Amino acid sequence: MVAATRKATGSPSSAESSSSASGHDMGTSPVRSWCAPQSAGSVSFAGGPAQLGAALTALAGGSLTGTLIRAARGTPGPRALPLATAIMTCGLAATAIAPALPAALAGLATVGIGWSCFLGTAIAVLQSADPRMLGRVMSLFAVVLLGGTSAGAPVASSLSASLGPRAPFIAGTAAAIAALAVASRGAGPASGRPARQLAGLSGRAGRDA
User: Fold this and answer.
1) Which of 30, 84, 87, 181 would give a disulfide with 7, using CB separation of 3.0 to 4.6 Å?
2) In 57-107, at which residue ranges do the beta strands (DSSP E only) sit?
3) How many other CB atoms are found less than 10 A from the CB of residue 15?
4) CA distance 150 to 138
5) Considering just the CA atoms, what is the radius of gyration of the chain in Å?
6) pLDDT tens digits for 136-186?
7) 188 in the Ramachandran plot: left (φ > 0), alpha (ψ -120 to 50) or beta?
C-alpha cells in the first residue's frame, strides 16, 4: 500500500534514484510516477516531494484515526471485520479513480482508517484464542502480515511499471472486494462469537496434535 502510494504521488529525486540503483527502492517505486511528469500513457498529477509527503501524511493520519476509532469501540462484534474491509475497499477504489490530488489524498486517508480498524479487529479476535494456542496463532498472523507486506512491494512495483501507476490500487480494490465477500459470509448470525469459535478450533487442533 505504501509502495503504491509513493509512486502515485512523487517524482524521483537524485537521492531516490541512487536508492533505486542500490536495489533498496523496490517498495518505493510504485508511488512516484503518479505525480511525476506524464509519460508513456501514465496518469500524472505533476507533483514532486511535497505531494509524496502529503500522500504519506494522509495515509498515516487515516491510520491514526482508525486506531483511535477501533480503541474507542471496545470489543469487536461479528460485523467489525466486514465494515473495516468495506472502508478500505472504498478508499482504494477512490484512490484508483481519483481525478486530482485532493481526491487521492482523501482516498488514501480512508485506506488508512480501514486498514487500522481491520488490523485492530483481527488482533483482538486472534488474541481471544485458547491460551495454549495463542503463541502459534499470533505467529502465523505475523508471518502472513509481514510476508504479505514484503511480497506486495514488488508486485505493486511490477503492476505500476507495466500497467501504469493506478494499477496497484485497482488490484488492491479487487483483492479487498474478495476479502469483503469472505468476511461478510462469516458475519452472519452463526458467527456472533468469532473469538470463541476460533479458540475452540485452536484448542481442538492442540488436542489432536
Assistant:
1) 30
2) none
3) 9
4) 18
5) 19
6) 888 888 888 888 888 888 888 888 888 888 888 999 999 899 988 887 776
7) beta
Rounded distance between C-alpha atoms, residue 161 and residue 41, angstroms: 11
Question: Length of the chain, please?
Answer: 209
Rounded to an integer, what distance in angstroms lies between the CA atom of residue 171 and that of residue 169? Answer: 5
Cell of 187: 458475519
User: Would you list the domain boundaries of the chain?
Assistant: 57-208
The x, y and z cell numbers of residue 66, run together, are: 482508525
In 3D space, the residue among 176, 3, 5, 13 whose CA is nearest the CA of residue 105 turns out to be 5
CA distance 8 to 31: 4
Residues with Cβ within 8 Å of 158's Cβ and at least 6 positions away in sequence, in order, are: none
Measured CA to CA, the distance from residue 27 to residue 146 in angstroms comes to 13
User: How far is it, in rounded angstroms, from Cα 165 to Cα 51?
Assistant: 15
Looking at domain 57-208, which of 1.10.287.110, 2.60.270.50, 3.30.70.580, 1.20.1250.20 is its CATH number? 1.20.1250.20
Give strand pairing partners of 8. 31
∠ CA 192-193-197, rounded to 5°: 130
What is the per-residue pLDDT across 13-32, written as a single tens digit (0 to 9) for each?
444 444 444 444 433 444 44
- What gap in Å lies between CA 56 and CA 114, rounded to an integer? 15
The structure's pTM equals: 0.67
The C-alpha cell that represents 158 in the structure block: 511490477
